[in-house]
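I am writing to request your help with a piece of structural work I have in hand. What I wish to show you is a protein chain and, alongside it, a tokenised description of its three-dimensional fold. Could you please explain, in whatever detail you think fit, how the structure tokens follow from the sequence? You will find the record immediately after this paragraph.
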Amino acid sequence: MENIKSLFLYKSQYNKQQWYIIFQQLKYINIKNQTLSALFVVQIYKEPYFICKNQQLCNEYNGACEEKSNIDYLNSYKSATLEYGLYCENRQKKLKQKIKINNIKRQLRLDGQALFFLGGFLGFFIISSLCDNFGRQISLRICIIVFFFGAFFQYLSNSYILLNFGNFLLGFASNPNLVLVNIYFNEISPNCKKQPYLLTIYCVYGFTEILYFLSSFYINNWRNLMLFVLIIPSLLTFWLIIFIKETPKYLMKTNTEKAFQILKYIGSFNGLELDIKVEQLEVFPTIQRQVYYFWDLFRYKSLRFNTIIFSLQAVFLSFQYYGIMFVSDLVGIEYGINTFFIGISETIGFTFNLFLVENRSRKKLYIGYQILACIGFFIFLLFDSTTNQYQQLVFMCVIKMFLGNQFNIFYLQTTEIFPSSIITIAIGFILAMGSVGAALIPYFLDFGNIQGLSLNIIFLVVGIVSLIFSFLGIETLNLQTQDYILEEYENCQYSEIINKEK
């Protein structure tokens, strides 16, 4: 059966019909997205700050409570770090004005934080391949199932091993969800509304950060927080995900007849009788469907350069963006309060970005946000030792807003530059590289704390390197998205010419 060019080329009534898909899926995916994005701010391995019975506030860098029995458990946050003793607790030696910490439990906490992103690294590869080769619908369902079991294992964990395993599963499911939601909205949105719909998704992250603070304000136990913020919403999402349909654009490459059925279903919902005929749609030359893999991103010349540049940008950008999440537990007022105001700042930034991004250069906006973030890190560095906790919070909010908007543009660029036949695999690979950068954060920050090195120096250096590579990217504004890889399409056209000559 003939492969039809994107349904978005159907010119008569399609944009009106799109509204059903947009809102039908928006209520399901946004609930799912909100649930999964909450994980990024719920730090199970909360930094070990304790209140001792003598009212002294201690951590493992300036000295823990003298004895474990002296920890004021009643007023300390009930984190997994506290429950499993994943901290040094007064086992420190000062050598040459530097603190040397030798404790395997503390290393387990760092590994647990990194496992979330390492799980995402593996998840990006597996889920992205499933998405492009077997469909968006089944990939979304797999994500929510694995996510539920990851949260459930953590909730019932009786050891840090099961706790870390659950964290790995959570990362495996929730990180690829970023790709799926972007691709899904990219394929169901009309061209004139695609940009604002894609960018609106990210406002959910800001709302979720605010939700986390409100939840943690009443729930002072990590297990209960996980139950009400992650497990119960994921059960609701699991039921709602059943109603999500495959995107018509994906079906056009695999099952044209079923794609027409969904079109007619959309039309009937809107009270329109559609008499869709093949001649009303632009038809591509028949291209044999292939199963693509990650190494195809380097096999085809038209994909190679963009894959390398965007992968490097993902590493540096993820390190900065998620690094602020870890830093918010070390500076500012308090983690929950920090998260609340960061959520507000990101929501404001994303909303501002909605109006700024349309018909403006993606590359210039990306570079501009990176420059502003670097300036923020530099100013923060200059006043690092003199700023009070309120000023630190302001710096974090502003920098996170710039980086969030930069990530906003980054995701938009990736959906515009790669062919739809391999787009999920491409974005999955790029974000998998970003997970590697994020997985390094706990170890870099820990090294900086031990060596007395300002964390802002680390972020500033990474930001400058990211800025350099951002100039190598290409502009994606008004870049027409292709359905097929350029080399495959050219080979197909050449074959058809040869056949006609015969």
Remarks:
- The two ends are 23 Å apart (CA to CA).
- The chain has 19 helices and four strands.
